[in-house]
Amino acid sequence: MGRSDRKRGFSLIKNRSTFSKTFIPHTLLWDPMATTIQLQPETKSRLDAWKIHPRESYDETLNRLLDIAFDPEPLSEETLQQIEEGIADIRAGRLRSLEDIAQELGLK
């Protein structure tokens, strides 16, 4: 590959099976908008464990985990009010044990 080919944004790839030369535009070799991050080996292993399938990209895995962690939709006023009422009930001692509920439902 000559110097002029590099200037035009091409890389030389040698096909091992036919020993032919193929020119591939650099844009096909990597995503210019992607970035590299450094992970500890333990972190990478933990991230690998969260993959749905082995070919799932780290980008897909991280986005799925971020969607779980950060809910973009805030709680409604009604839901917030119900949470406050529940906390008030607990503080006032208005609660029932799991055993009482299971017995009432005939599960015990």
**Strand segment count:** 2
| Uncertain residue segments | 1-15
- Name the quaternary structure: single chain
Into which percent range does the helicity of residues fall? Answer: 40-55%
Please list the strands of the largest sheet in the order they lie side by side. Answer: 1-2
Describe the largest sheet.
2 strands, antiparallel
Give helix and strand order, one letter per element, not per position: HEEHHHH
Q: How much is the average pLDDT?
A: 80
How many domains, in number, for the residues? 3
Q: In DSSP terms, counting alpha (H) and pi (I) runs of 4 or more, how many helices?
A: 5
Rounded to an integer, what's the Rg over CA atoms? Answer: 28 Å
Termini separation: 79 Å
Summarize the structure.
With 108 residues, this protein is α+β, with helices and mostly antiparallel strands. It has helices spanning 3-7, 41-49, 58-69, 77-91, 98-104, and strands at 10-15, 20-25.
Can you give a write-up of this model?
The chain has 108 residues and is an alpha+beta fold. It has three domains: 1-31, no CATH class; 38-73, no CATH class; 75-108, no CATH class. 44% of the residues lie in helices and 11% in strands. The protein has five helices and two strands. It has helices at 3-7, 41-49, 58-69, 77-91, 98-104, and strands at 10-15, 20-25. A two-stranded antiparallel sheet has the order 1-2. The chain is elongated and about 60 Å long.
